[in-house]
Amino acid sequence: MRPIVTPSQMRQADEAAPETSEELVGRAGWAVARTARSMLGGSYGRRVVVLAGRGTNGADGRVAAAVLVRWGVRVEVVDCEPDVGGTLSVESAERLAALIADADLVIDAVFGTGFRGTFYGPEVGDTPVLAVDLPSGVDALTGRVPGRPVPATRTVTFVAAKPGLLLWPAARYVGVLETVDIGVDPGTVDRWWLDDDDVTSGWPRRSAQAHKWQSAVWVIGGGPGMTGAPNLAALAAGRAGAGYVMLSIPGDDDSMTGGAGGPIESVRRVLEPDWSVSVGAEVGRVRALVLGPGLPVRWADEVRSVVRSWPGPLVLDASAIDAVGAEPELLRSRSIPAVLTPHAGEFERLAQRVDEPMNHRDPALDPIVSAEDMAERTGAVVVLKGPTTVVADPNGSTWVSTTGDARLATAGTGDVLAGLIGAALAQGLAPGPAAALAVHLHGQAARRGHRVGLMAGDLPELVAQVLAGCCESS
Question: What pLDDT is attached to residue 470?
Fold first, then answer.
């Protein structure tokens, strides 16, 4: 996992560093030059334009320019100062456009993490862009983009990722994000950016003495004519390592054949009308419960009863989230935090119903802080799904995954994620890490699928492929 720090935390780390600011600028500039040379594929004969502002970010760019010149690169440094409207004020806009058109690379070093305001960058056409610390003009804390930054091909950020680089809409301007160590200690960190190695090292492995009940998952969801969601969750749990998967669809005996596409390996369990009582009878046999995929809202009272009585690991998805929103104290009273998996709409409804309503933030504008606030208020692990997915643990840890993309914007993928989290819980991971690794694995699997036409039912097999690769490389 890679640390995430806010701009204010970064300033404090810089101030606490024993090195002088000149030394740190020198290291940062060298790192930028090294990445630039890699992007150029060499040095001699290459042309680079450096857009350099007045602050530390501009100083980094000027040091990089000096290093590149020593390496034989032809460099033009353009001193940049935006006017009151946020547009670059340069001696000759026509000359700048000509320089960029003739360049092999543009280095954007106009603004750093302290930027506030609006910035409209120059047009760069097809010329590759390397951003220093962040694309100038994006908000390093929230990811907001009030103007028009220059889209970067690659961004070199120092010490740790900044939240805004991982959040949309700023993320679309970042390109490939590279974090560079310049010898500054970021201090105590409680936010983390997940990478593929975390799944490789952290996903549970079965021991040689394992038996199926040691990692059993029970999926309860769906209803008459609505068997797809729980079937997807059950299939995903099995593909992610659950040794035994029970599947129940309340109130629909006929659907217990599994429905089209249902996993034949799942054991069907018929539930009585007041099924929360029979669920409690399985405590001690089943390691994790996934409750809610495709479940009709009419079962809200039963859901709340299960949350009261089920002491083990628990995933609440879809209508189950709405059910507990009416009594959020059920979540706060649990000794093992439940895992909630809301999309933005479900999150909004939950936010309106929890005690002490939040200073209402739009989760799309500030998903990290929104998820953290909700985790603190409910005592649950909150998985706020979106183009960047945030997992917030009530113990104060937060994980961010950027593996997901538009391929996951299709019906049923959330049901698959609920099953993956259930499997991770059943195999012994704590709720926060289980949800975080499952989210990242979910995105990894999607990236192996079709760019167009990926369906939720494709994901469980892709999950198994990712995990097979993890086992081979560990």
Answer: 81
Return residue ranges of the chain for CATH 3.40.1190.20: 196-473
- Mean pLDDT confidence for 465-469: 93
Work out the burial of residue 333: count CB atoms within 10 Å of its CB; fewer than 13 is exposed, 13-18 middle, 19 or more buried: exposed
pLDDT at 387 over 70: yes
CA distance 314 to 238: 17
Q: Report the C-alpha gap between 67 and 24 in whole angstroms.
A: 15
For helices 459-473 and 413-426, what crossing angle results, to 10°? 40
Backbone angles phi, psi at 82, to 5 degrees: -65, 150
CATH architecture, domain defined by 196-473: 3-Layer(aba) Sandwich (3.40)
Q: How confident is the model at residue 54 (pLDDT cuts 50, 70, 90)?
A: confident
CATH among 3.40.50.2300, 3.40.50.10260, 3.40.50.300, 3.40.190.10 for 2-189: 3.40.50.10260
- Strand spans (E) along 295-397: 314-316, 339-340, 381-384, 389-392
pLDDT at site 312: 94
Q: Are 361 and 399 in contact (CB under 8 A)?
A: no
Q: Contact at 8 Å (CB) between 443 and 256?
A: no
Q: Give the whole-angstrom CA distance, residue 171 versus residue 84.
A: 26
Whether residue 324 contacts residue 307, with contact meaning beta carbons closer than 8 Å, is answered with: yes
Residue in 448, 436, 446, 450 with CA at minimum distance from that of residue 199: 436
Name the band, by pLDDT with cuts 50, 70 and 90, for residue 216.
Answer: very high
**Over 60: is that where the pLDDT of 215 sits?**
yes
Residue 269: Cβ within 10 Å count: 18
Mean residue pLDDT across the chain: 90
pLDDT at res. 255: 46
